[in-house]
Amino acid sequence: MRIIACIEDPDVIETILTHMEKNTTEANGPWRPPCRAPPQSSLFD
User: Where are the stretches annotated Disordered (predicted)?
Assistant: First the structure.
């Protein structure tokens, strides 16, 4: 990863964060694989 810019203006930061909050919902959040059950330790005992 390379840093290509540094935003220091508080007004610009607020604008970006507000925009991100409006466009991010639970349904549009990052994709996650389905949960797995814990391993069964007694399966092969």
Answer: 24-45
